[in-house]
């Protein structure tokens, strides 16, 4: 890997965020998995990182964080596998890494419904597994050790910020629409969007709430753009728009569709979730409907997943039931100081 200034920044951000993750671990919970006595491993370790939508910037950053933490720990190899959005591929790739006898597995499932199959397969092979980003459970309902973010809490931060900007703009519910985009069969996404709606309602107080247009997407920017374009055509009389979603792809796709439809950036309040795409307009100094975003650090999740797995394997530390990262709202003025690397 070529050593660049950007690479150093990502490494430092991941290392710092890892400390936050460690501090954010659930307290008082019982370990969800404990290694057998005498099971500590020595020598080189191989950790498989299986990710849905591995080409999205967040997951690219997550893989970078995992690899950098592996270098820091020493003698650890991270095998990254892109699952796309294919649940069947997730199962076949899981079988492949189990057959390869990897030492540990971190997985972001494309569909939480396959959780029992994933968790039980790893358990049968006696390979420790953590779920990253999206929580999953075993066939008997026991949650897998989780590394990631509080989905509903993230959504609430988005909704709170959107309400703040809406009130400051002085818009009315009658001439405003909320557009929310998410993969509607993914509980993690539903938690985020529901959290945003709850916090927005609380944030505006007794005021009337604008109507919401719910877009079912595949969580890609392209699909959100297409679906939002159709929604705009059906609501040509609307003056003002608020956009949020499960991730930055949904929010920026919606904002792009609105701007392509000749809605002025001043008439759009877009609050992203991730900040890795919303930051691009800020970085370019462009006028944009992307007004703010919740910054979530992919490197922190990847590095934490590797850290807890290696600690379990080498030092017999129990896998924490839940490792939760902190987040922060950023905008065009504050994103650089947050440590966000916009590529």
TrEMBL record:
<dbReference type="InterPro" id="IPR050555">
    <property type="entry name" value="Bact_Solute-Bind_Prot2"/>
</dbReference>
<protein>
    <submittedName>
        <fullName>L-arabinose transport system substrate-binding protein</fullName>
    </submittedName>
</protein>
<keyword id="KW-0732">Signal</keyword>
<dbReference type="InterPro" id="IPR025997">
    <property type="entry name" value="SBP_2_dom"/>
</dbReference>
<dbReference type="InterPro" id="IPR028082">
    <property type="entry name" value="Peripla_BP_I"/>
</dbReference>
<dbReference type="Pfam" id="PF13407">
    <property type="entry name" value="Peripla_BP_4"/>
</dbReference>
<comment type="similarity">
    <text>Belongs to the bacterial solute-binding protein 2 family.</text>
</comment>
<feature type="domain" description="Periplasmic binding protein">
    <location>
        <begin position="47"/>
        <end position="314"/>
    </location>
</feature>
<dbReference type="InterPro" id="IPR006311">
    <property type="entry name" value="TAT_signal"/>
</dbReference>
<feature type="signal peptide">
    <location>
        <begin position="1"/>
        <end position="22"/>
    </location>
</feature>
């Amino acid at each position: 890997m070529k050593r660049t200034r950007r690479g150093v920044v990502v490494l430092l951000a991941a290392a710092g965020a890892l400390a936050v993750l460690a501090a954010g671990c659930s307290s008082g919970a019982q370990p969800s998995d404990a290694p057998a006595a005498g099971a500590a491993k020595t020598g080189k370790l191989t950790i498989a990182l299986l990710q849905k939508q591995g080409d999205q910037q967040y997951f690219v950053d997550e893989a970078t964080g995992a690899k950098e933490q592996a270098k820091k720990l020493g003698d650890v190899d991270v095998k990254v596998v892109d699952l796309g959005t294919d649940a069947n591929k997730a199962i076949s790739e899981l079988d492949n890494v189990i057959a390869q006898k990897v030492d540990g597995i971190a997985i972001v499932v494309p569909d939480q419904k396959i959780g029992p199959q994933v968790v039980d397969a790893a358990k049968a092979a006696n390979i420790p597994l953590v779920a990253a980003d999206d929580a999953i459970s075993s066939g008997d309902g026991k949650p897998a050790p989780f590394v990631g973010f509080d989905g509903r809490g993230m959504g609430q931060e988005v909704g709170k910020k959107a309400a703040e900007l809406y009130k400051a703009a002085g818009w009315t519910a009658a001439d405003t629409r909320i557009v929310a985009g998410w993969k509607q069969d993914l509980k993690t996404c539903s938690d985020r969007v529901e959290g945003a709606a709850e916090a927005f309602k609380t944030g505006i107080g007794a005021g009337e709430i604008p109507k919401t247009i719910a877009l079912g997407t595949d969580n890609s920017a392209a699909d959100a753009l297409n679906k939002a374009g159709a929604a705009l055509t059906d609501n040509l009389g609307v003056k003002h728009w608020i956009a949020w979603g499960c991730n930055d792809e949904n929010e920026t796709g919606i904002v792009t569709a609105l701007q392509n439809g000749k809605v002025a950036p001043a008439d759009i309040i877009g609050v992203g979730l991730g900040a890795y795409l919303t930051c691009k307009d800020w970085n370019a100094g462009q006028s944009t409907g992307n007004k703010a975003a919740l910054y979530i650090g992919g490197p922190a999740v990847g590095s934490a997943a590797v850290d807890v797995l290696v600690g379990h394997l080498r030092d017999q530390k129990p896998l924490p039931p839940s490792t939760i990262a902190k987040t922060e709202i950023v905008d065009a003025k504050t994103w650089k100081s947050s440590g966000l690397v916009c590529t």
